[in-house]
Amino acid sequence: xxxxxxxxxxxxxxxxxxxxxxxxxxxxxxxxxxxxxxxxxxxxxxxxxxxxxxxxxxxxxxxxxxxxxxxxxxxxxxxxxxxxxxxxxxxxxxxxxxxxxxxxxxxxxxxxxxxxxxxxxxxxxxxxxxxxxxxxxxxxxxxxxxxxxxxxxxxxxxxxxxxxxxxxxxxxxxxxxxxxxxxxxxxxxxxxxxxxxxxxxxxxxxxxxxxxxxxxxxxxxxxxxxxx
Length: 228
Fold this sequence. Notes:
single chain; alpha/beta
C-alpha cells in the first residue's frame, strides 16, 4: 500500500492519494481526482451575459463553490502553484466547448501590482490565462499594468469596490481596434473587470469581453448583498 501511495498523486481538492487512472487532471505530483472534478460546477454552457458600460459580455466558466473554491484559494493565497495549473487544465477543457470567441484576437490577463507580485511571486490570472489562450488558440497580450496597489477586493464592501480600483490600471501599448478577451480569476461585482474594460477601450480596443475563471454570484436579501 505504501508503494502505491509513493507512486500516486495527491488531490488538491480532498488531499487523497490516487493513481493516474483515478485522476481527471495531473500536474507533477498533484491532481484533481475524478470525484472532486465531478463536483466542479460549470456556470452554464450558455454563459452569463451582461452588456454593460462597453463590456460585450461576461463568460464565467465555473461557479465559485467547493471544491473549486478550496483549490483556487490554495493557489491564490497559499503558494500552491500546482493547484492553479490543475484549475487551468479544467478551464482549458471547458473553454473549448464555447463558440462565442471566434472574432477576438488577444487575451489579456488582469494584472497584479508589483507589491502583490513580490509577495506571491506570481500573477494567478496570468497562469490561468495561459490555459484559456491555449484552449481558444489565441495569443496572450500582456499589455496591462497595475499602477496603484489597491486593497484586495475580497476585503472591500461591494459598494466600495469600484472606488477601490478606480485608476488602478493602465495600458502599455496603443491599440488599433482589436477585439480583446479580458481574463479575471473571479468575477463577483465586476468592479475590477469593468475598470479594466474602460482602460482598454480608452487605449483603442474594439470589443472587449470578460472571461472569468469563476463567478461568485452575489445574493441580494432586502437590498443587502451577501457574497456566497
